Amino acid sequence: MEPVAHKELQYLKGVGPRRAAALAQSGIQTVYDLAFFLPRAYIDRTTTTTLRALALTLQKQEHLFQQPFPLAEERLLLNEVTLLIRVESLREHTYGNNRQMLIATISDDSRASGAIIFWNRLDYYRRFLQVGQLYILAGRPTLDRRGVVTFHHPELEPVDPDDEELYRIGRIVPKYRLTQAMRQAGLTQSRLRALTATALQQLLPTLEDPLPEEVRHAHDLLPLTEALQQLHFPTSTEQLQRARHRMKFEEMFLFQLLLALRRRDVRQEKGLRFNPRSAHARWLLQRLPFELTRAQKRVLWEIAADLSSGHPMNRLLQGDVGSGKTIVALLTMLVAVDNGYQAILMAPTEILAEQHYHTLRRLLEGSELNVVQLVGGQNTRFRQEVLEQIATGKAHIIVGTHALFESPIAYCHAGLIVIDEQHRFGVLQRARLRELSRASLGTDGVVPHVLVMSATPIPRTLSMTLYGDLDVSILDELPPGRKPVLTKVVFESQLPQVYEFLRSQLRAGRQAYIVYPLIEPSEKLQLKAATEHFEQLQQQIFPEFRCGLLHGQLFWYEKEEVMRAFARGEYHILVATTVIEVGIDVPNATVMLIHNAERFGLAQLHQLRGRVGRGSEQSYCFLATCDHFRYHWYRAEEEPRERLAAIVRLRTLEQTNDGFRIAEVDLRLRGPGDILGTRQSGMPEFRYTDLATDGPIITRARQAAFELVRQDPSLCRTEHARLRRALMQRYSDVAHWLDVA
Ligand code: ADP
Ligand code: MG
């Protein structure tokens, strides 16, 4: 890069060693760093409101923000307004039982006045608030009885005196994140702005734009220099939007290039060329009591094309709970087997592995195919025997857990790996299984086919980024005859009716789940609470029915025993304090009651609910929550964030059974990092892009990136040289895919 960019800040006019040190503490060392130290917020003086305007609006009883019920968290902020105010006076008032409140009278340019009320942390606010000082206020306005615009505990930020001018003129003003150290070194908002202006002046003429001209034109993107200038000193909100858009696009474009290169590389690997016609698959299809859904057929076509391409398959199969992934996996495995290869199916837990094992054996009954199981805790002799069947190739299909790769197992031509519930495995674990399988295929570098399956639907924006180097197939259709689970939020005082409903279902021969979240601090207390819940249910509420208990202190094989007994119908009700295993299939269970449902996450509730509605009977899910929620329920919009999120979760479940829609809402509520644990998933943290809301940009950037790699697979054209440099700078491991030393 050009020398200006690397220039150390202390040599920039107006900085000096002390300020340079303060900036360096935040990682800002060079002119380049400073230019990319972007404002954390903007105060839009062109559109901020005034006290007078607010009073008029509120008096007209208009709803300030006529948004529909907010599903997206960011909408929550819309109820807030931003104002530039001056504190005119402070007074205290005693109320109730000798309690104090602090009232600030405020004014603004519109020469109207208003009030701020503080109910707590008065000591702090007495010190913080200065009469005569200007503040940026952000908060939710109300009108008091006398018609005065009032804020309760708004956010307040003092305006530096040397900034006042800027705030007065109608402009968009950037706010930087100043640290304590920066302030102590004399850096104010306005000084920083001035420094940034100098830095930009020096840097911009030498800055190169990584985006190729043709991409910029095709997507109407600002050049990098203009975008940077706008990000610091926007001339209008539109330009600011365009600048942000450009940064997001670039960020996603580079990341998608990385994925495209990676995928191109996988495509070039040597794979096994399978003949997709499988006698066993045909045999199985004839025996199945049902037709495949259209979605299942489509996905099988996609898989068949991969298997016969000569390149290794790398496919993610997404499908909601109950969409029939198992049968797709089995048919795929049969193709491998009929081509003379072993197939491996890996599940995250013993219970799931066991269930798959039994399902596969049942489906393959009457064929000569041999399915074996490899899990932890098998006794040595038995395990030895299984290992031998695997090594000699007598085992055709191998089902298991982590045990499949935890010791070096000798597979015999393992040509296909299927991974169920892949989100529960880390990248490394998948890689290890792949290595073992690869080793079994000989030394000439052939790579096995991999199919990963996910029962937790992921919004498209996420699968495009997180699994962007995989091909994605989606089972977006449930087998016919499935009735959506009827879901209802109930309050605790309605529980007797719910119990009565449960009884009627049980009498009709159905089974039920009752789930409690356990919130006790210690395991001992948890066990006690669990047992108490259980005994109360069994003895007082359902004395005429048999209840089984599943709690966290059971060993896995004890849990399994309880589950099995429930599946055999020995219990009418399964009381669970631990979350019931994902993937457990008891079609006769038609009712689920979840206590304190507000404590569960959205994905978790959806998965739990997926345990019912698996047969042909209508199923029901009750989400029970405390009575005081009923009050909040109806005034949802004014609730604090946490509670509102809980309400949104429950309402979403009432409204839809569609896992993809639920996943979208979840993404908006929690953000991608929380959902996926970005660090573990290997996805970089994005600086500009919000995966929850920037879907369209991601899609466009992805298309552009993949198209570019198609045309210039190693990015060696001269017009892509800058792009190549930027890519290597941002993702150091990309060199490998660019074939450079
Ligand atoms: P998941 O995608 O959650 O793993 P499963 O593979 O366990 O779903 O399938 C759920 C149930 O649906 C199983 O009992 C399975 O036999 C049944 N099933 C799968 N495909 C069909 C179909 N096309 N028609 C009817 N039932 C099906
Ligand atoms: Mg499954």
Question: Care to give the gist of this entry?
Answer:
The protein is of the alpha/beta class and 741 residues long.
State Rg: 31 Å
CATH architecture verdict of the largest domain:
3-Layer(aba) Sandwich
The CATH topology of the largest domain is Rossmann fold
Query: At the first level of CATH, what is the class of the largest domain?
Result: Alpha Beta
Question: How much strand?
Answer: 15-25%
Q: How many structural domains does the protein architecture include?
A: 4
Largest sheet: 7 strands, mixed
The CA-CA distance between the termini, in Å, is 19 Å
- What is the overall silhouette? globular
User: What topology, given as strand order, has the largest sheet?
Assistant: 6-7-4-3-2-5-8
User: Segments where pLDDT lies below 50 for 5+ residues?
Assistant: 61-79
Going by helix content, strand content and strand pairing, the class is alpha/beta
Helix content: 40-55%
> Roughly what is the average pLDDT, rounded to an integer?
85
The name of the CATH superfamily of the largest domain reads P-loop containing nucleotide triphosphate hydrolases
Helical segment count: 30
Total number of β-strand segments? 22
Question: What small-molecule ligands were found?
Answer: adenosine-5'-diphosphate, magnesium ion
Question: What's the SSE blueprint?
Answer:
Layout: H1 3-6, H2 16-24, H3 31-35, E1 41-44, H4 51-59, E2 81-95, E3 99-107, E4 113-118, H5 122-128, E5 134-139, E6 141-143, E7 149-152, E8 155-158, H6 164-168, E9 172-175, H7 180-184, H8 189-203, H9 213-218, H10 224-232, H11 237-268, H12 279-287, H13 294-307, E10 314-319, H14 325-338, E11 342-346, H15 350-363, E12 371-374, H16 380-392, E13 397-400, H17 403-406, E14 414-419, H18 427-440, E15 449-454, H19 460-466, E16 471-475, E17 486-491, H20 495-507, E18 511-515, H21 523-541, E19 547-550, H22 556-567, E20 573-576, E21 589-594, H23 602-609, E22 620-625, H24 628-634, H25 641-655, H26 659-670, H27 672-676, H28 678-681, H29 695-711, H30 721-730
Parallel strand pairs: 4-7, 10-15, 10-16, 11-13, 11-14, 12-13, 14-15, 17-22, 18-20, 18-21, 19-20, 21-22
Antiparallel strand pairs: 1-9, 2-3, 2-5, 3-4, 5-8, 6-7
